[in-house]
């Protein structure tokens, strides 16, 4: 993942900011008494990207991947709409409890820019719903040049979205957050329609690390640097999620990206191990010999 990449990470303050003031208000209304649902995974299961993750002779990458992780952030759906049969096949290859988190097709977000997209959305959902109960939160990633001047398009899109299908949105233009009047209007809209406000933790765009929840679910896209500091960053995330668990958060969706994606499973495995220890969970820890030096 190239977004937010910097060449000199020593100049970056990687500390998590304090929670937005209204995040505690949102969590106060969650009152979850049970353990939260936690899904951790990579952005894909491609053997060409996750080199070294698959044992020699692995015949089906998804089948193996799903024995190691309980979810995947499905970025492939950004580039084309897969057939209903393909989604049905993915459903059959994965175990009970596994979740897919598909990114909406780029025709919706980048080409048509939310204008006149209902037919494309219908086609996308017609296929994706073949994942049945394994369909996790679908997410919309808006381009960096999609600014608040098109707020009405966002509002119309959200109001037309089927309420039974969880949705998260990633806003990349900085004006969505640095103008308080726009930000508050956006947050109110997301809260009203139960839409998750995606948090992006990447080196070059610390403004997207807003720590503003808009419902009882958090969707984090963590972009590593392929440096040791990534483990300290994950430690800090574990502490923050532990606090949110105590405040009643219902679902945590956390996906690990790397510039060199082959290291993503190792980083995710470390994170899952820490989540289990600190939040009292029992998530599958992906096996890799390198993990032994981390735990």
From TrEMBL:
Pfam families recorded: DUF72
Highest taxon of source: Bacteria
Name assigned to this protein: DUF72 domain-containing protein
């Amino acid at each position: 993942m190239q977004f937010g990449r910097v060449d000199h990470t020593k100049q970056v303050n990687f500390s998590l900011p304090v929670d937005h003031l209204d995040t505690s208000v949102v969590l106060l209304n969650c009152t979850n008494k049970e353990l939260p649902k936690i899904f951790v995974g990579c952005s894909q299961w491609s053997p060409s990207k996750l080199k070294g993750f698959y044992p020699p002779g692995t015949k089906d990458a998804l089948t193996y991947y799903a024995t190691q992780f309980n979810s995947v952030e499905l970025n492939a759906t950004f580039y084309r709409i897969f057939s209903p049969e393909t989604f049905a096949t993915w459903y059959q290859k994965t175990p009970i409890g596994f979740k897919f988190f598909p990114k909406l097709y780029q025709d919706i977000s980048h080409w048509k820019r939310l204008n006149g997209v209902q037919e494309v959305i219908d086609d996308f959902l017609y296929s994706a719903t073949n994942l049945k109960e394994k369909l996790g939160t679908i997410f919309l990633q808006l381009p960096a040049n999609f600014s608040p001047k098109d707020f009405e398009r966002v509002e119309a899109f959200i109001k037309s979205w089927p309420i039974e299908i969880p949705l998260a949105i990633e806003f990349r233009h900085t004006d969505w957050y640095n103008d308080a009047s726009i930000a508050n209007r956006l947050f109110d809209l997301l809260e009203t329609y139960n839409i998750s406000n995606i948090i992006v933790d990447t080196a070059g765009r610390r403004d997207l690390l807003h720590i503003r929840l808009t419902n009882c679910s958090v969707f984090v896209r963590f972009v590593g640097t392929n440096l040791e500091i990534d483990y300290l960053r994950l430690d800090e995330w574990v502490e923050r999620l532990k606090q949110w668990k105590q405040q009643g958060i219902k679902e945590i969706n956390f996906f690990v990206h790397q510039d060199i994606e082959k290291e993503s499973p190792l980083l995710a495995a470390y994170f899952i191990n820490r989540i289990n220890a600190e939040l009292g969970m029992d998530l599958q820890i992906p096996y890799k010999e390198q993990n032994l030096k981390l735990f």
